[in-house]
Description:
Number of strands: 0
Order of helices and strands: HHHHH
Amino acid sequence: MTDLLPSQLTTALAERRMAGAVGAVLLAAYFVLIGLFAIVLLAAAVLVDPGVQSAVGWVPLDAEAVRPSVILAFLDSFGLVVPLLALGLGGLFIVLGLRLARRQMSAARWAQIALVWVIAGLILFLILNVIDEFQRLSRTPNYAFGADRWPAFSWRSPPC
C-alpha cells in the first residue's frame, strides 16, 4: 500500500472505511435481531402455555368457582428469573445493536464479549442435546430404533 499514489491511497482508505461501515451495520442488525428474537420467543411461549391459556380463557363450571389469576399462572409456568432474563438480555442486545450502529468503540468491546458468551452457550446447548439424544437412544430397544420418530422407516422385522 506504500507504493500507491496519494489519490489511490485516498480511494483505498475510503473503500476500507465503507467496508467497515457495512460490517458495523450488519453486526448491529444481528444484535438487534437476537434481542428481538429473545423477546418474541418469550411472548410466543407465554401465548401457547396451557396454564396461561386456561387462566385467560376460563369458563366457570359452577356458581362458586373463583377465577384463576393470569399472573399466578404465568409465574407457575415460567417463574420470575427466566422472563426477567429473557427480557433483560433481549433489551441489552437491542441497545448494544443500536450502539454498534452508531459505531461506539465501547459497544464493540461489549459485543465481542457477548458473542463469546453466546457461542459458549450454544456449544453447551449442543453438548447437552447430544447427551440427551444418546440417553434416549440407549433406552430404546434395538428392534424399535427409529420407530418412534420415523414410523415409515421402522427397522423392525415383520412378524413371522
